[in-house]
């Protein structure tokens, strides 16, 4: 059914999860319904941007009348379903699954920049695992640092396939697939090529979905204030605090600012992570805005310009062939005087103003108001045509 | 866009014409790819170059640059001849069908094939696929508008959409993709020479009265000059001063040499920007402005979705927000602006703009999705336009015959040059070219040339060549590729050291005043 304003009407269903009645659109999975009702079900191979995969089995739940346990990410909710997300058996299964994953995983989280945001670490903390009871051979891969954007450390890979699936399903490119077999299997590139030798678009969608530190954004790794960021996140993991709570406790307000991308007209939502007045990382919130957490190479990595040394920091006034730094008062007085004189002598229509498609609505409004009300001409335009 | 970005996933067929979506609007590209890969949507790509989207397309119509009207008229000829048009929609919601049918009679697929270079049967099949879909969307960008026939192209796109009943429903519509983060918003709030906010004419006395009352001054009634006309007026000596904010015409204008000559003629040039751009270097006064990360406000995306911009860092040095600078300057020129805090300015916009009347920072901060028109503070926004009627009531078919581009390949300049963006860079490169990683992947521009043309002119990949047109010449590295058709070359316009717009034609569309960036007669020679 189409509503009068062009929106689609969707049929609603009701299910009971852990005794809470939840409603949602028909076609939702059990996990969708639980999330909408703020009921936590652990996941690892799940990302709302992709088709459900059902591989990690952490989201198994009990459904009344169902044969066996069902993966909540995959199983469609049906009207009247009764679901239990947390039973002793389910928690025991989940703990064992995490222990198995950790049996081939470096437990020195402090050395990993993903610490504090790592989904595996979060689960290990949740189930109180400091060491895996399963002991066996461990991988020793050399980290791939061959291109400016994407770093791959397969020692931290848990084979959830999220990188493979997001590149194929969302980006439609397919740089990764499982290569090798058994213990040697990894999500690799064709013939182990460097990523710049593949059709990779460096959108970083794989970075945004990787639950561990296996795939990371190279521009946002490093020393200085970025290391400080990692230290903070490490502390968050250690104290089992959320980033927001930690930042609040430290009095670091505005650590993450939600804003809109400054490149093309898609309007992707960005989270700018700021340390010491510098943007230390750019991410995009999942399933928010039309980007849904996906970005392109410019949107994810193209922000060196904000803190560039080449930014203008003082007004400049031309003296002959050179520019001389000036005070705001002098620069603005000069402009007011010159524009005033030209308006008087040649008329307001001898002045033209170009506003900016890069500036905000508010700034553009003020510029056209200034042109029309203060200068007195309609000679105002911007680069819509260029 | 008449529809939204989210909505593209609902389409059963999408025609992409004149848009290199995956490179210029990558995130919209994702939605198109998803529709194709997961929802079984049929994708038709009409584009001279083999762009990445062609890999996902059911049908690729490789038409020559500047022949869009002929191609679309050819498709409409098939749709009408074979009775595939939406008879109910045409009867109830449109007028002028007979005139359109009469005009497109001339554009048999065979004739369209002759003009466009696309096989007649491909035109037939594309037309059938598009007409057969329940919901079919058309997506276009500057490949449609940046022609001397840009307005004709847009009207023809609208004709096709109305003919197939694809307006006012999900998964359909006419969807222009705006090239910059806030082109949509800048237009909405009146940074245009002929209209105030909300596209209301400056020549309308009633409208003017409303703004005169709000602003407390008398306002001019004559429409002003467009950006391209300003450059021409400066060149002719009629425009004496310019104030340029966050624009770089010295790279973005067609025929840069003409723009440079014009800007140099001005008595006084002010440039307000975040960098000392090529344009700022010509200025008398340069003012340091704050970047998007350093201010509060809103951007309006290409699908009319108004979204918040929030301050994350302090502006460097003495750089100031555009709002403060404008208010300060106004005061010095004898006009006191009201409160220029962004939230208050949005309230002022809302009070003077019917489409934005229900939009405020407070409302957006709740996380709500608002697509204008949003006429009051309770209104949920309007994701899909024209669901019941068009702005003028009934949709009017305006038949448009094909006209050739202003400049065509000839004996002296045997190739057609077309321009555009690449994935890695953005517009004049002011921002992206300051990014280390991006420049490692994409250090400089390249001219794309077909295998046959490369052989003909003795050109090899990686070698420097000279590309020239009647406006000028540039040195640039060659990339020989089967992705180009014979007779056409492509130069991206981001790179100052090989600026495509030294070459482009500044002939403009008579209505929209958009220059013909996409078609210039050119030649290449090996260096």
Describe this structure in words.
The complex is a heterodimer of chains A (386) and B (527). By secondary structure, chain A is α+β, with helices and mostly antiparallel strands. Helices cover 27% and strands 17% of the residues of chain A. Chain A has a five-stranded mixed β-sheet with strand order 2-1-5-3-4, with helices on one face. In chain A, strands 10-11-12 form a three-stranded antiparallel β-sheet. Chain A has a two-stranded antiparallel sheet with strand order 6-9. Chain A is elongated, with a radius of gyration of 27 Å. In chain B, a hairpin with a 6-residue loop joins strand 18 and strand 19 (515-516). In chain B, helix 3 (68-81) runs antiparallel to helix 6 and helix 3 packs parallel to helix 9 (150-163). Chains A and B meet through strand 10, strand 11, helix 8, strand 13 and helix 9 of A and helix 2, helix 10, helix 12, strand 7 and strand 8 of B. Strand 15 of chain A pairs parallel with strand 7 (241-245) of chain B.
Write the layout of secondary structure elements.
The complex is a heterodimer of chains A (386) and B (527).
Chain A lengths: L11 E6 L2 E6 L4 H7 L23 E4 L6 E2 L10 E3 L3 H15 L16 H8 L23 E3 L9 H9 L6 E3 L6 E3 L16 H5 L5 E3 L7 H14 L4 H7 L6 E5 L8 E7 L2 E6 L13 H5 L14 E4 L2 E4 L2 H19 L4 E4 L6 H15 L4 E2 L5
Parallel strand pairs in A: 1-5, 15-16
Antiparallel strand pairs in A: 1-2, 3-4, 3-5, 6-9, 7-8, 10-11, 11-12, 13-14
Chain B lengths: L12 E5 L3 H4 L1 H14 L2 E5 L12 E3 L6 H14 L5 H7 E2 L1 H8 L4 H8 L3 H13 L3 E5 L1 H4 L4 H14 L9 E4 L6 H6 L16 H11 L11 H9 L5 E5 L3 H4 L3 H10 L2 E6 L11 E4 L8 E4 L5 E4 L12 H11 L9 H11 L8 H4 L30 E2 L18 E6 L15 H6 L4 E4 L1 H7 L6 E5 L4 E8 L7 E5 L12 E4 L6 E2 L3 E7 L1
């Amino acid at each position: 059914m189409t509503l009068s304003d062009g929106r689609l009407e969707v049929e609603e269903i009701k299910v009971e999860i852990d005794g809470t009645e939840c409603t949602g659109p028909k076609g939702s999975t059990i996990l969708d319904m639980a999330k909408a009702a703020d009921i936590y079900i652990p996941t690892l191979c799940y990302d709302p941007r992709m088709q459900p995969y059902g591989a990690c089995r952490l989201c198994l739940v009990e459904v009344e009348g169902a044969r066996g346990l069902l993966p909540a990410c995959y199983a469609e909710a049906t009207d009247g379903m009764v679901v239990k997300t947390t039973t002793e058996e389910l928690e025991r299964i989940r703990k064992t699954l995490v222990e198995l994953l950790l049996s081939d995983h470096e437990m020195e989280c402090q050395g990993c920049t993903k610490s504090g945001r790592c989904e595996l670490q979060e689960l290990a903390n949740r189930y109180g695992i400091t060491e895996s009871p399963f002991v066996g051979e461990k991988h020793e891969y050399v980290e791939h640092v061959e291109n400016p954007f994407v770093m791959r450390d397969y020692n931290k890979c848990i084979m959830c396939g999220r990188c493979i699936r997001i590149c194929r399903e969302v980006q439609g490119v397919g740089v990764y697939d499982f290569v090798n077999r058994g213990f040697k299997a990894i999500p690799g590139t064709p013939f182990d090529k460097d990523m710049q030798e593949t059709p990779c678009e460096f959108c970083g969608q794989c970075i945004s979905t990787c639950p561990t530190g296996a795939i990371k954004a190279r521009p946002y790794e490093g020393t200085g204030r970025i290391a400080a960021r990692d230290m903070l996140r490490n502390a968050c993991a250690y104290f089992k605090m959320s980033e927001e709570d930690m930042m609040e406790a430290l009095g670091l307000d505005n650590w993450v600012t939600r804003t809109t991308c400054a490149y093309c007209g898609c309007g992707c939502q960005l989270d700018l992570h700021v340390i010491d007045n510098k943007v230390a990382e750019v991410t995009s919130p999942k399933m928010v805005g039309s980007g849904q957490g996906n970005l392109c190479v410019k949107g994810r990595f193209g922000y060196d310009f904000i803190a560039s040394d080449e930014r203008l920091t003082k007004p400049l006034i031309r003296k002959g062939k050179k520019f001389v730094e000036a005070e705001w008062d002098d620069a603005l007085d000069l402009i007011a005087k010159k524009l005033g004189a030209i308006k008087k002598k040649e008329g307001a229509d001898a002045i033209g103003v170009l506003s900016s498609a890069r500036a905000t609505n508010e700034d553009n409004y003020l510029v056209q108001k200034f042109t029309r009300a203060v200068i007195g001409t309609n000679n105002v335009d911007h680069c819509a045509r260029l | 866009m008449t529809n939204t970005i989210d909505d593209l996933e609902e389409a059963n067929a999408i025609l992409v014409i004149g848009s290199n979506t995956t490179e210029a609007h990558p995130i919209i590209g994702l939605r198109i790819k998803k529709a194709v890969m997961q929802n079984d949507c049929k994708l038709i790509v009409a584009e001279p170059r083999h762009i990445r989207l062609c890999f996902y397309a059911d049908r690729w119509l490789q038409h020559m640059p500047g022949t869009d009207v002929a191609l679309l008229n050819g498709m409409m000829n098939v749709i009408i001849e074979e009775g595939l048009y939406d008879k109910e929609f045409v009867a109830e919601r449109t007028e002028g069908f007979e005139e359109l049918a009469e005009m497109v009679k001339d554009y048999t697929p065979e004739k369209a094939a002759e003009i466009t270079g696309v096989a007649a049967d491909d035109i037939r099949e594309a037309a059938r696929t598009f007409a057969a879909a329940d919901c079919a969307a058309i997506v276009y960008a500057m490949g449609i508008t940046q022609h001397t026939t840009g307005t004709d192209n847009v009207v023809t796109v609208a004709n096709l959409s109305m003919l197939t009943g694809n307006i006012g429903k999900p998964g359909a519509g006419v969807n222009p993709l705006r090239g910059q983060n806030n082109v949509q918003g800048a237009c909405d709030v009146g940074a245009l020479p002929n209209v105030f906010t909300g596209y209301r004419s400056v020549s309308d006395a009633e409208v003017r009265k409303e703004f005169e009352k709000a602003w407390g001054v008398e306002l001019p009634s004559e429409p002003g000059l467009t950006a391209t006309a300003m450059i021409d007026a400066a060149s002719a000596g009629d425009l004496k001063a310019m104030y340029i904010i966050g624009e770089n015409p010295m790279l973005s204008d067609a025929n840069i040499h003409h723009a440079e000559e014009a800007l140099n003629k001005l008595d006084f040039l002010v440039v307000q920007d975040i960098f000392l751009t090529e344009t700022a270097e010509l200025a008398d006064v340069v003012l340091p402005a704050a970047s998007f990360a350093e201010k509060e406000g809103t951007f309006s995306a290409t699908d009319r979705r108004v979204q918040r911009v929030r301050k994350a860092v302090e502006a460097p040095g003495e750089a100031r927000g555009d709002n403060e600078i404008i208010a300060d300057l106004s005061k010095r020129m004898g006009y006191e602006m009201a409160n220029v805090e962004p939230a208050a300015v949005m309230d002022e916009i809302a009070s003077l703009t019917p489409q934005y009347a229900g939009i405020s920072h407070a409302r957006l901060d709740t996380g709500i999705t608002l697509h204008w028109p949003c006429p009051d503070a309770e209104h949920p926004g309007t994701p899909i336009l024209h669901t019941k009627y068009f702005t003028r009531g009934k949709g009017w078919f305006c038949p448009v015959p094909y006209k050739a581009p202003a400049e065509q390949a000839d004996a002296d300049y045997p190739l057609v040059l077309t321009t555009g963006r690449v994935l890695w860079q953005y517009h004049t490169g002011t921002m992206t070219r300051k990014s280390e990683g991006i420049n490692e992947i994409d250090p400089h521009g390249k001219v794309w040339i077909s295998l046959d043309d490369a052989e003909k002119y003795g050109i090899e990949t990686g070698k420097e060549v000279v590309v020239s047109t009647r406006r000028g010449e540039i040195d640039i590295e060659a990339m020989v590729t089967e992705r180009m058709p014979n007779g056409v070359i492509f130069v991206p316009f981001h790179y100052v050291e090989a600026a495509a717009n030294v070459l482009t034609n500044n002939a403009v569309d008579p209505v929209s005043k958009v220059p013909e960036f996409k078609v210039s007669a050119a030649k290449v020679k090996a260096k």
